[in-house]
Amino acid sequence: MSDKDSHGNMHRVVIVGGGTAGWLAAGVLAAKLSAKHTITLIESPNIPSIGVGEGSWPSLRDTLLDIGISETEFLTLCQGAFKQGSSFVNWRKGGHCYHHPFTVPIGYNELDIHTCWQELAPNTSYEDAFSLQAVMCRADKAPKQVATPDYAHVLNYGYHFDATKLAELLKKHCVSKLNVAHLVGHIARVNPHPNGDIESVLTEDGQKVVGDLFIDCSGSSGLLIKEHFNIPWVPVKQTMLNDRAVALQVPYSDNDSVIKSTTVATAQTCGWTWDIALQHRRGVGLVYSSEYASEEQAKQTLIDYVSERYPGAQDAQFSCRTLSFEPGYRAQFWVRNCLSLGMSSGFVEPLEASAIAMVELGLRMLCEAYPQNKAHMEIVSKRYNKRFEYRWQRVIDFLKLHYVLSDREEAYWLAQRNEASIPDSLSGLLELWKYQSPSRLDLIENEEIFPSASYQFVLYGMGFSTSSSALRLSEEDKRKVLHIRESLQQTKQQYLHGLPSNNALLNDIARRYNELTNQHKHHPLSPSESQADQHISSSTNNDSEVSKNSTSQKKDASYDRIGFR
């Protein structure tokens, strides 16, 4: 095939960069594109994955299922745990705490839940008025039973995981099962096509890799989107003040090994700490602004948090890893035949764990409108750039909301809610929400990255006040609400009795995985094998009341966050 002919189609995909973003891209595209497409991933031999982003949204369940990795295998090999949302500690004064769970309030899409809460459950917290997930999180309950099949749920969930181990698992699966070509080498040169596209890349050891579509997953270096196409970075430091992080890995002690199923975000004087529980350790870190703390102050703040929260941790284990970043996103994400994903595309900060979800969203849009030729690509890329500029702006608005609602008085927190740092789009919504609660009418895209329910959880979790609606609740709506509330009380007891702890369920999953791999040493565990094993185990639990409330859908259309929550 001549270069001219090959440039007319888009069959050869070249991914530059590995890590979570690169291997997710390879896996999704290799699993979804037709057999005439080829996927090649070029990975540097000595640039390790950042390996800090250890939290996902529920979307990762569908992504892993699409790629063909069983949940049992993923959780065991990546030391994964269940994530049911985020909990926020001390973001307001007085020992304040609230949850942003992954399950929307029951009745949210048919009732004015805010008005129902104010009128019929004013003495109950917003997170507990029409949802059980925060209660189960506080009780350290898993979101499913031992008998619940892979990727199905009783309560909606994502994951905590070891990011480095996930990249390794994806790499192994992509190469051995999905025929992804894996090259190890540094990119020495990018060769342009006469029409302005990328024709090929050349590695330092002389390997020339020709492609039709190039995906830049090279991280903040942006080897293609930045270094070749010179697409500028749009900084948002005026709004998102954080630009540094320090991270620790904290082993469990014998008397403190409970695996929580939320990312615990605790406000500190100069930023906030994340606390993520995996099976074998905790991942703990501090996100902060270099304008308000030095690196040494940040490290000490993090060590003080760990020492107070986990007294069994030893000082000798405190080996901090430091990271710096410039919050922002590309002025264009898809230029000619180059699409950027991951940190080469944008990064704001770890709050609410949107980084991997943005990669997944990018891959979803790419797959749903995969370009057939150059003309098609010009149309698709314009739509992609418009959609993702909007999405990054909404990520910024939603993350900034958490800071604006704080009443802490340290200099860092005062700066976070300085009016000059608040985007006009968020200021306008906050003014509107004084009079009416967030709704779908405020967020105009059909696939919002954070839907109105997420805004309500944060607003009312942080004590924001919205005036009572001018519309009265109908008697029928009141009956619906009372029925929901009564049903929740019954279901609450069933869940508390029937759902295992996170530790118990994860231990059982690991045990069954090890038993199955011993039986199938000559081939990796497939999703179908894992499902079969779980259905066998369900025969001993089929009378459980909780199992009646679980969903076995592989693709769950009821997720919040467009299948991402």
Structural class assignment: alpha+beta
- Give the DSSP E fraction (strand runs of 2 or more residues): 15-25%
Major sheet summary line: 7 strands, mixed
**Principal-axes shape call:** globular
- Gap from first CA to last CA: 44 Å
Low-confidence stretches: 1-6, 528-544, 552-565
So, the CATH homologous superfamily of the domain at 3-80 and 161-234 and 330-390? FAD/NAD(P)-binding domain
Could you tell me the radius of gyration in angstroms?
A: 24 Å
Query: Which fold name corresponds to the CATH topology of the domain at 3-80 and 161-234 and 330-390?
Result: FAD/NAD(P)-binding domain
Number of DSSP E strands: 21
How helix-rich are the residues, as a percent range? 25-40%
Q: Write out the strand line-up for the largest beta sheet, numbering strands in chain order.
A: 5-4-14-15-16-13-17
Q: Kindly state the mean pLDDT as a whole number?
A: 90
Q: What is the CATH architecture annotation of the domain at 3-80 and 161-234 and 330-390? A: 3-Layer(bba) Sandwich
CATH class call of the domain at 3-80 and 161-234 and 330-390 = Alpha Beta
Helical stretch tally: 18
